[in-house]
Amino acid sequence: MVTSATPSTPSAHHELPVSLDDVRHAHKTLAGVARTTAVEGSRHLSSLVGSPVHLKCENLQRTGSFKLRGAYVRIAGLSPEERRRGVVAASAGNHAQGVALAASLLGVTSTVFMPVGAPLPKVAATREYGARVRMHGQVVDETLEAAKEYAHATGAVFIHPFDHPHVVAGQGTLGLELLEQCPEVRTVVVGVGGGGLLAGMAVAIKSLRPDVRVIGVQAEGSAAYPPSLRAGRPVALESVSTMADGIKVGKPGQVPFAIVRTLVDDIRTVSEDALSRALLLCLERAKLVVEPAGASSVAALLSAPHSFEGPVAAVLSGGNVDPLVLQRTLRHGMAAAGRYLSLRLRLSDRPGALAALLGELSVMDANVLDVGHVRTDPRLGLDEVEVELHMETKGPEHCVEVASGLRAAGYTVMS
């Protein structure tokens, strides 16, 4: 899905809450703190799109995502009195780690509220970066309220993940880097949650290169920007649902929304299948571990490869993925790419029947991952057994060949 925005002329940029000078100042603030992450070419994506595609590998940033940039600039801008009171944040992962490290580097005490179900590796990393972690709430909205109450009670400064000019300016430094590393770029594709990264990059890119198209990408189940752009103001979604927790945000921030509606060319949405396939592609073809939110830009390229003017730069915004989530997502991605096949068959309940079936699959070069047996079911005859197979295949054509081959061998294939 594509939602067109209407970018303004460069002369209107001075009316925005963040300017190019703000981004440049943030860039100086981050010198020696944030890494200049690599830009890598992707031959596979380039062949799909029909022009060069470059990957901006912010998944290799310190703390594993772009969040350090904005958090550090925000905390560095606090007064001595504000620093003395400490900072507080709420996050399920990336922002938590960015705030924790930024505060530690600046000698500021940090408290981070995280939901009870936050992945253990992210909780451990946040603690290791120096934050005091408090577990509260089942969802981020509850955690956010707890952090705000803590700020009110203690005087700690609340560090918002995206809705502050200093945060947006810090994220915009990624845009300055990208233009230096890839001056020939014509389209930049960025994942979007609350909009801080997209807004910051849009300020940097459109101020220096108004000819470059800037496109944001949201997950279909948490796409708050399309209705907000139509309404002309940030609109909250009634519910959000996506595996990409890094962009799972129900309402745009006021600061980034003002910039996005003015400077960004398009907002596109991608399916969960596309996110899974993108993560799998990054791992297999680019040898990069990327979280689902970080792969959203690649998902947009896979969904409509011929709709981007090249050369294209796709931002891989983060790589903090829980191993269990990675396992499930990769399996989902294999299924979406036609490389994972599930079938139910009926066999005669006799010795050797299952071995014979597995022998047939071996001849067809299908890799059996799991086998389930059902003997007690009113649908089955006395001499029948139902077998559920999960297999790794070589692609959609191979899936068809396996199912057809089993039918040709006399097996009853039900799905």
Automatic annotation (TrEMBL):
Residues 342-415 form the ACT domain. InterPro entries: ACT_dom, ACT_ThrD-II-like, Ser/Thr_Dehydratase, Ser/Thr_deHydtase_PyrdxlP-BS, Thr_deHydtase_catblc, TrpB-like_PALP, TrpB-like_PALP_sf. Pathway: Amino-acid degradation; L-threonine degradation via propanoate pathway; propanoate from L-threonine: step 1/4. Residues 1-20 are annotated as: Disordered. Keywords: Allosteric enzyme, Lyase, Pyridoxal phosphate. It holds the Pfam family PALP. Its EC number is 4.3.1.19. Residues 1-11 have a biased composition (Polar residues). Its cofactor is pyridoxal 5'-phosphate. PANTHER family: L-THREONINE DEHYDRATASE CATABOLIC TDCB, THREONINE DEHYDRATASE, MITOCHONDRIAL-RELATED. Belongs to the serine/threonine dehydratase family. This is L-threonine dehydratase catabolic TdcB.
